[in-house]
Design a protein that fits this description.
elongated; mainly beta; four-stranded antiparallel sheet
């Protein structure tokens, strides 16, 4: 259950791309940092390089993708509302492997 007691979830989705902008399948994507407790799970990208999972607490998360060959990338995303300025309730992120 979320910290706000509402049981709400916030989707985080995105894609992992290589240096040329092509999708990379089979990359493990997980949350490296975020507010409160977050799931200790990894999503694997599909053939189209896309992934998705949900978190239960609003805030800023660091999402990290790691390919089997060791290449990695990370980016920060914000989900939920913050203060009086509403942010998207879901977040989308692109990770570009170096």
């Amino acid at each position: 259950m979320s910290a706000d007691g509402g049981g709400r979830t916030y989707p985080i989705s995105g894609a992992v791309l290589d240096a040329h902008g092509d999708p990379v399948p089979g990359v493990a994507v997980a949350i490296a940092d975020g507010p409160g407790p977050f799931p200790d799970i990894a999503a694997l990208t599909g053939a189209d390089g896309r992934f998705s999972f949900s978190v239960s607490t609003e805030g800023v998360y660091t999402v990290q993708g790691t390919a089997a060959d060791g290449r990695s990338a990370q980016a920060s995303v914000e989900v939920g509302a913050r203060g009086t300025t509403p942010a998207p309730t879901s977040a989308s992120v692109k990770l570009r492997l170096g």
